Amino acid sequence: MxxxxxxxxxxxxxxxxxxxxxxxxxxxxxxxxxxFGHHNGVLSVRDIVEGAGEIGIKYLTLYTFSSENxxxxxxxxTAIMELLISTINKEIKKLMENNxxxxxxxxxxxxxxxxSTELKNAINKTAGNTGLVLTLALSYSSRREIxxxxxxxxxxxxxxxxxxxxxxxxxFSDHLHTANIPDPELLIRTSGEYRISNFLLWQIxxxxxxFTDKLxxxxxxxxxxxxxxxxxxxxRRFGMTSEQIN
Length: 246
Ligand code: IPE
Ligand code: IPE
Ligand code: MG
Prior knowledge:
CATH topology: Undecaprenyl pyrophosphate synthetase
CATH class: Alpha Beta
Bound molecules: 3-methylbut-3-enyl trihydrogen diphosphate, magnesium ion
Order of helices and strands: HEHHEHEHEHHEEHH
Shape: globular
Radius of gyration: 19 Å
Helix content: 40-55%
Strand content: 5-15%
Number of helices: 9
CATH architecture: 3-Layer(aba) Sandwich
Number of strands: 6
């Protein structure tokens, strides 16, 4: 039996977040340039988006480009941005067919104008879709996101719109870029790295972490299903005892 058949579709994580890592090493293994890895990484994105939609995942968030990634060599950054533009353009038809709603988090205005325009178009076009919500984290830094939320909240307090006692977890969450998205129950990172790299720090407080050695361009829907199955075997206790849960 394949992994997919073993998944209990009544106990799916609502939201899966993925740190898509290992494109560069994948290319290097093949004696190619890093950019070749990014191009092949797009094929994995397509397959994972389809696979997630197919089994009924509601939210999928992909770490696509971090604020720290701006520090890479200029030609790599340029190539990634160009790839982003051409991919959004090419994939929009598929997104519509699959009823996917596109969304972004991060400092989108930092992206080249052509890129942010293309993104805004795609977001508008898919706004009425009711299936999977696909969120791309672009120029994203979780610490910056948290700082921005703090600044906005502080301003509201200064203006008398908000009392400090009213700043609950829910209020704080509403000031993050992920305001309309539930916290991920499952966080996957590929390529054998065991770190979070400034991704969704607040939101993953109780996420189940899943690490795989597979490099991102090798990660396909069967691997996603394997991760979901692993998630379903875990006992999520939220500070309680096993006896309380069962
Ligand atoms: C992930 O793959 C893609 C981005 C961060 C844009 P990498 O480019 O980080 O690949 P490695 O980790 O160097 O192999
Ligand atoms: C994290 O990968 C960012 C993305 C996947 C977009 P990196 O490859 O940039 O992370 P580090 O630098 O190895 O932590
Ligand atoms: Mg990397």
